[in-house]
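Quick entry, no commentary yet.
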Amino acid sequence: MDALRFLLDGEVQTVTDADPTMTVLEWLRTRASRTGTKEGCAEGDCGACTVVVGTLAGDHITYRAVNACILFLPMLDAKVLITVESLKREGQLHPVQQAMVDLHGSQCGFCTPGIVMSLYARSIGATGDMPPADVLAGNLCRCTGYGPILAAAEACPPAALDDRETIEALKTIQRDDVLELRHAGKSWFAPKTQDQLAALLIDHPQARIVAGATDVGLWVTKQMRVLPEIISVGDIGDLATVQESEAGLTLGAGVRYSDAWTALARLHPDLGELVRRIAGTQVRNSGTIGGNIANGSPIGDMPPALIALGARLTLRKGDVRRVIDLEDFFVEYGRQNIEISEFVEAIFIPRPDPRFDRLRIVKLSKRFDSDISAVCAAIALRVENNIVIQARIAFGGMAGTPKRAAAAEAALTGQLWSQAAFEAAAQALAQDFQPLSDVRGSRDYRLLSAANVLRRMWVENGTVLDAEPINA
């Protein structure tokens, strides 16, 4: 059995006796006596448990703010962990902490440590040029109204972190082989390459694959499920590649949302805006697009957009690969087109042709930020000589899986770009879907909203001039 090792305040922490599904939050509060990190929701929604994790990448460290409440402890292996207690040095508050004090950014204080850690990540340049409001979208506060918190963010502009000593320390605990942990009948495997992953899945066909644990983490914290075998793919470098070409965008299944964001936005602005509305910064820093697809959720935001764009999946089992259309991956609720020991290797998204392709992606949810969709719609049309020659329309939240709207597509295809054609497509949606009513929306709301997305595309665009792109 291997030992789990990570850095905390410059010291190597070695853990050999922890349940593989213990969360980082639980370890901090019960083992390390670091109670500054709070538990608010235990499902990655509120941000009170935010910590910063650094991963060695060559000769630099990539830092991410993440939710400790759904991050499994072994996912820290060979990384550096920074908590709110790490920030105060030699009796002096960190500038972010001091700004929160000076600008009255805290009242009851329960959410404050998580907010401080999100702002700390911004202060060391980990969030790029993301506006402070987007940085903090995954942190909820019931007291201050956010104004003073945003002011504190503005008072602490990003600056480079001198982490040379940390880099050298991290180099001493890196590993090339598979991390293997066992405790109380549970096993955790963390391969470093796709080949190692493929071999492990052959040997352990019932193992649960975990990428960012943004979904599986809740199985443990909320459902109290026991997971006997876990294979973590978060450290597989050749599963986290982003490749752009004239043909389109190829994403390794292990690419996190935060790492795919800019490439998706270059493919089409609506894709970039969709990613901005998916969860909060902490979840996007952990969750992967491949994981979002593989779990088969009917309300995952990215699959409808990728289906509308004609995305394809590469699946691998051992040394055998097969390529399928993404829409064929979703069979029915809870069942996907994937074999035992097979895993999602990559996603290919064709590049829209700006001369003819019109794309509109809409997410409808109760909250603008960090909320689950009631309806997610993606409309991809090819128009030549003012005739819709191809229509791909997909919805999430309308059926047991992400699904294309065949009747609506047929109502548009071959028709003149006109209000009448879009109205016919809107009416046809009732043939495509019989949605359920739940806490996010009633059946009637979903049908009407989906129809209005189609009507909205006409209202926003009006007459199409052939070969002239429309900013959808």
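second:
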Amino acid sequence: MPAAKKPRAAYDRLLLKLSGEALLGSNKTFGIDQSFLQYLAREIKDARSLGIEIAAVVGGGNIFRGVSDSAKGMDRVSADHMGMLATVINALALQDALENEGVFTRVLSAIEMREVAEPFIRRRAIRHMEKKRVVIFAAGIGNPYFSTDTAAALRAMEVKAEIILKATKVDGIYDSDPAKNPKAKKFDRLTYDQVLRKGLKVMDATAITLCMDNRLPIIVYDLKKKGSLRRIAQGERVGTLVKE
């Protein structure tokens, strides 16, 4: 009997965008759900077993966001810097969870803090990925007024990722909030122009425009559906695809 064919990856390199709120899991309202973090690490490990190179950008909304209610009355620059530091905490937590699963990782921070993370250097990030390490980008792009969505789009282009995977709590992009509207319509495929014109809350307008200008596809999918990341890596149609 011939040996079974090894599953092939549809991409060589991808970037996974995770919101900080994703790390809350199902029960927490603040901080990190350790059991969900381990689930996430196993999902990344499973996709990586295909031989694919993976980078990740994690938000900080589970701890602090520069535009959150708790930041009201604060100077926007100071609040955004606090939000960037929250992403570093999440990146270190994800690194620990991945390394507990036997996955080699590197955290690269846009704000220099050599004791806990490497400074972001584009060529170093690419080299880590070529060595099959999962690279976690922290602290956004190091500047206020830019979201982690924009950081994800920028880092994806800098490391020449072929696609951005936006992991969310729903299984794609809808014309309204499916949690509030049971008749919300799901889109299987959209163009960047449609996302911007319809005001769909996929990523912020700056990130969408960056992806559009550089023809970088985006897939929005349900993070909590086990095996979805691997299925996407294998080229299966999952969630909503945004591209020209």
